[in-house]
Amino acid sequence: MWQRLREDIQCVFERDPAARSVREVLTAYPGLHAVWLHRVSHTLWQRGLLWPARLLSHFGRGLTGIEIHPAARLGRRVFIDHGMGVVIGETAEVGNDCTLYHGVTLGGTSWAGGKRHPTLEAGVVVGAGAKILGPIRIGAGARVGSNAVVVRDVPPGATVVGIPARIVSEPAQAAAPDARRQAIAERMGFDAYGLTREMPDPVAHAINGMLDHIHAMDECIQTLSQRLHRLEGEAGEPLPAPPPCAVTPMDEGGAAEQPAAGSASRTGSAS
After folding, report:
1. Phi, psi angle pair for 191, to nearest 5°
2. Predicted local confidence at residue 9, as pLDDT
């Protein structure tokens, strides 16, 4: 039991940079309180004490703003951040290391008995206000965008957004160029935030396209350089050097800075 409590506290520090101290986490994180109360109510439910389990669940809802049915199954290191308005239905299953943000609903689409709520595999992140409905499965490591409405299975590692939710990125699609784009971005000084598959917006697509084009240009330049060196060796004399290529610095207003008069005159005299 103590091991699981330590895991719960540690996962808060790992996933919420606003956490400052253990005392703060213990006293001011309703998501943590909701998970702990649910473990007690779930134990009561499994032992057949249905009414006390529901009563404790109801108390936890009033205390934290998070409603978790005592029959729902939660894995280890589940973190509910902010938490207000989260609803987890009776037959829902949440795997290890999942993260839910405020306003998330793991709900059903039928009044019939049996399995009617979703299953979240390990490491799933569900954004604020998202609704996952029905007995569907969200694959391990998947990402559900804020306010998305998911009514179909999501493959592992995919990112879904929209109403109804659609897949905008899958690991198989993005895995090959990701390392190459990352290397180019680091060399050029780009922030990696614009390159992650977890932010599939038009700006990210534009940046990815630009980096792919830069990579293609680099390959062309390397090929041309190799051919020039080969021609240089065959001719027996060095080829004329290309003119220098310099990037014109920009001023604070975004306009190109003009060269100083002295430098311009020196350039003219040298030519």
Report:
1. -80, 135
2. 86
